[in-house]
Amino acid sequence: MGTILLVEDNQNTADFIIRILESEGHTVLHATRGLEGARWARAAHIDLVLMDIDLPDVNGRSVVLSLRRQKSASTLPIIAVTVQADEESVRLAEGFGCNAFLAKPFLPEELIGLVNHFLKPAD
């Protein structure tokens, strides 16, 4: 299983995501602000990031762009998790460095499927 960094300012949403991921055996680190998430992504061994785009301090776009400029995080899988689910938002998220997009609200199976896609067990 993997270590997942969740950057999400809404505690109810974070609790929901954490319950799902921990029930699948993942370790979840939770940051409520973008700058805090960026620091954790640099300092801890992270296998995947779930990034809310609308955050209270800096937006998720800025955090993702910052991570993509760092060699250590340049290939880190990042999934945008946001209520902005229109086609333009999806294209923008992919354009600034997200590997996938998950629109809120979502079913647990959708989250698990995306996470498993990026954290496939080694053969």
Description:
The protein has 123 residues and is of the alpha/beta class. The chain has one domain (3-106): Rossmann fold (3-Layer(aba) Sandwich), CATH 3.40.50.2300. Helix content is 42%, strand content 20%. The chain contains five helices and five strands, in the order βαβαβαβαβα. The chain has helices spanning 11-23, 34-43, 60-68, 87-95, 108-118, and strands at 3-7, 27-31, 48-52, 78-82, 100-103. The protein has a five-stranded parallel beta sheet with strand order 2-1-3-4-5, sandwiched between helices. Strand 1, helix 1 and strand 2 (27-31) form a beta-alpha-beta unit. Helix 2 (34-43) runs parallel beside helix 3 (60-68). The chain starts with a strand and ends in a 5-residue tail after the last helix. 28% of the residues are buried.
